[in-house]
Specification:
Layout: H1 2-44, E1 47-54, H2 59-74, E2 78-85, H3 90-102, E3 107-111, H4 113-122, E4 128-133, E5 152-156, H5 162-173, E6 178-183, H6 188-204, E7 209-214, H7 221-226, E8 234-237, H8 241-244, H9 247-256, E9 261-263, H10 266-270, E10 275-278, H11 281-296, E11 314-317, H12 319-324, E12 336-337
Parallel strand pairs: 1-2, 1-3, 3-4, 4-5, 6-7, 6-8, 8-9, 11-12
Antiparallel strand pairs: 10-11
Helix pairs in contact: 2-11, 3-4
Biased composition (Basic and acidic residues): 30-46
Protein name: ABC transporter substrate-binding protein
Signal peptide: 1-28
């Protein structure tokens, strides 16, 4: 009887030891598996702080920001945006850049040339992705478009064929001779465009004369446009942030005086400009967003990411504006109606 009890006790003891050993082996294995899963989970759930600096509010820049956000969202990036608008004030623009840097953002989205310049001056460490910039090299944002070399890269808003096509259209199709241009000479991107246009006219022998009307603020835009009446037979409004923010003032002057006005991008056609060889600002914002995704995921460095040009250049026209200035639209222009962009 005693031997049976001893055997039973030994059996129970051995079973307990085996159970403990089994439990120990079951709990040890998952710990090793859970660590990488937990690390992946933390990586996926990270919220990135994105600083957004924009020189002024107008549809083109706003559309670029919408595209940027869409690219990050579609890539599964959880982002918190600190959006600050300078409203055309360069001193405020500088303060915004400094505030974003001191706020410890993970990346800065600079929407315009002045915004990108201020950001680049404020930090050489935080990645900066720009868009709505005309001449990245001329603005000294990058060492070269092919190899930026620093903490800044992005997308430009100039297609190599846009300006040449516009000038040829003015000359050959609208029979223009004197082209009025309202722009802010204090904006590097605007000055660069005007100088490029003048050089192209001279080099290509296009036979146009540019008549300038400079402004400092959006409040000056209408008066500057009015000063061109009687001096020009056409107008060309480039992607100048100051002027585009008050575009309706130029449109009203041009249309009331039946002056055909070509513009630099599609949103300005929607707002009453006659026509443009251009692209959607949403698209270049989206492309900038794709670049930001690679940087945030550690798949690329700004220094090695080439500056990108916009894609899909096409010609669109505002038929209502053409009717208002009594301009007949020719079939050979192959122009899309601006209303088609809404579809």
């Amino acid at each position: 009887m005693k031997r049976k009890l001893k055997r039973s006790a030994m059996a129970l003891f051995s079973g307990a030891v085996l159970m403990l050993a089994a439990c120990g082996s079951n709990t040890a294995a998952p710990e090793k598996e859970e660590k990488p899963k937990e690390a992946e989970k933390q990586e996926e759930s990270k919220t990135y702080k994105i600083g957004v600096t924009q020189i002024v509010e107008h549809p083109s820049l706003n559309a670029a920001f919408d595209g940027f956000k869409a690219a990050l969202e579609e890539a599964g990036i959880d982002a918190e945006y600190d959006v600050q608008i300078a409203q055309g004030d360069n001193s405020a623009n500088t303060s915004i850049a400094n505030n974003l840097v001191s706020g410890g953002v993970d990346l800065i989205f600079a929407n315009s040339t002045p915004s990108a310049q201020a950001s680049a001056s404020a930090t050489s460490d935080i990645p900066i992705v720009f868009t709505s910039v005309t001449d990245a090299e001329g603005a000294e944002l990058v060492e070269s478009n092919e190899k930026p070399g620093g903490n800044v890269t992005g997308t430009v808003d100039t297609h190599p064929d846009a300006i040449p096509n516009t000038l040829k259209f003015l000359k050959n199709e609208l029979d223009a001779k004197k082209v009025g241009m309202v722009f802010n000479s204090g904006e590097q991107n605007s000055r660069a465009q005007v100088d490029s246009i003048k050089k192209l006219i001279k080099d290509e022998g296009i036979g146009l004369e540019i008549v300038e009307a400079s402004v400092a603020t959006s409040a000056d835009v209408k008066q500057a446009a009015e000063s061109l009446v009687g001096k020009v037979d056409s107008m060309y409004t480039i992607t100048d942030n100051t002027v585009v923010s008050a575009l309706e003032s130029v449109v009203s002057v041009a249309n009331d005086n039946k002056i055909p006005m070509m513009v630099g991008e599609f949103d300005s056609v929607k707002r009453g400009g006659l026509g443009a060889y251009g692209f959607e600002y949403y698209d270049i914002g989206y492309e900038a967003g794709e670049m930001a995704v690679k940087i945030l995921k550690g798949e690329g460095e700004p220094a090695e990411m080439p500056v990108q040009n916009p894609q899909n250049l096409k010609f669109i026209i505002n038929k209502e504006t053409a009717k208002a200035i009594e301009l007949k639209i020719k079939d050979e222009w192959n122009a899309e109606d601006v209303k088609d962009l809404e579809k």
